[in-house]
Amino acid sequence: MYLLYTAPRTRGTRVVWTLEELGLDYDLRIHAPRDNEIRALNPLRKLPVLVDGDLVLTESAAICTYLADRHRDRVELSPGFGSAARARFDAWNYYVLTDLEAPVWTYTKNALVYPEKIRVPEILPACRKEFDRSVSALAEKLGDNTYLMGDTFSVSDILCGHTLAWARSLEFSIARDNVNAYADRVLERPALARARAREREAAELPSPADQAG
Ligand SMILES: N[C@@H](CCC(=O)N[C@@H](CS)C(=O)NCC(=O)O)C(=O)O
User: Fold this and answer.
1) Can you say whether the dihedral through the CA atoms of 137, 138, 144, 145 is positive or negative?
2) Does domain 2-76+191-212 sit in CATH 3.40.1160.10?
3) If you measure from the C-alpha of residue 46 to the centroid of ligand 1, how many angstroms do you get, rounded to a whole number?
4) For residues 40 and 44, what is the distance between their CA atoms, to the nearest angstrom?
5) Given this model, what pLDDT does residue 207 score?
6) pLDDT in the model for residue 114
7) Measured from the CA of 48, which atom of ligand 1 is nearest?
8) Along the 213 residues of the chain, how does pLDDT read in single tens digits?
9) Helix, strand, coil percent content, the chain, rounded in steps of 5
10) 145 Cα: distance to centroid of ligand 1 (angstroms)
11) Of 5, 9, 11, 14, best ligand 1 pocket probe by most atoms within 8 Å of the beta carbon
12) Domain assignments of the chain as residue spans, ordered by start
């Protein structure tokens, strides 16, 4: 049984989504990022953290890839080691973290997270511009493909889809039709809906329908 320390609306959703795609059993521990239990597991005091026996693993992308590699017999969410497909998969994951997510994260910190006195509002337009550039490259490489790896859904789509949803929540414009259609396709996956429901249940949050009513 995997144990995941997480909170809704964090990068932990990537991991819960992966667990759901793989149909695995897991337990969620909902925590605020900086509390003492998280500090004991991750000196950065950040979520998510996966505990699997003696293994304590941080970094959402590393956790998703670990789970996918261990359970390829269930569903292939990652290509085999040493293959050309694996190299392309790794390249997509590094692209998402360093080129697509980085401007969104810098924007989030300077618009919402940092204490007001250390925010740098002047950086916000540059974040949007950098994000646009990354989306243009994504549009070109994605072309008419269904998923980043072609016809096969993978962890790369979980990382990329989650990041595009995050950007949309900040009202970043995604000015490419194929990228918007790709984001819609990936974000409609039933495993993501199940993941969000599990997070809400664990955090004792009302469902969106209850909130609307
Ligand atoms: N690169 C890390 C980033 C983790 C991270 O920044 N998590 C946020 C929540 S999405 C957090 O715990 N923030 C608390 C903080 O910055 O102190 C990952 O992908 O897991």
Assistant:
1) positive
2) no
3) 5
4) 10
5) 75
6) 97
7) 20
8) 999 999 999 999 999 999 999 999 999 999 988 889 999 999 999 999 999 999 999 999 999 999 999 999 999 999 999 999 999 999 999 999 999 999 999 999 999 999 999 999 999 999 999 999 999 999 999 999 999 999 999 999 999 999 999 999 999 999 999 999 999 999 999 999 999 999 999 999 877 765 543
9) 60, 10, 30
10) 30
11) 11
12) 2-76+191-212, 84-188
Output the residue whose Cα is nearest ligand 1's atom 15.
46
What is the position in ligand 1's atom list of the atom closest to the CA of 59? 20
Q: From the alpha carbon of 46, which atom of ligand 1 is closest?
A: 12
Long-range contacts at 133-142 (CB < 8 A, ≥ 24 apart): 134/95, 134/99, 134/100, 134/103, 135/100, 135/174, 135/175, 135/176, 135/179, 136/176, 137/95, 137/99, 138/95, 138/100, 138/176, 138/179, 139/176, 139/178, 139/179, 142/178, 142/179, 142/182
pLDDT for the residue numbered 75: 98
CATH number of 84-188: 1.20.1050.10
Ligand 1 centroid vs 44 CA: distance in angstroms?
8
Query: Which of 16, 38, 5, 49 has its CA nearest to residue 162?
Result: 16
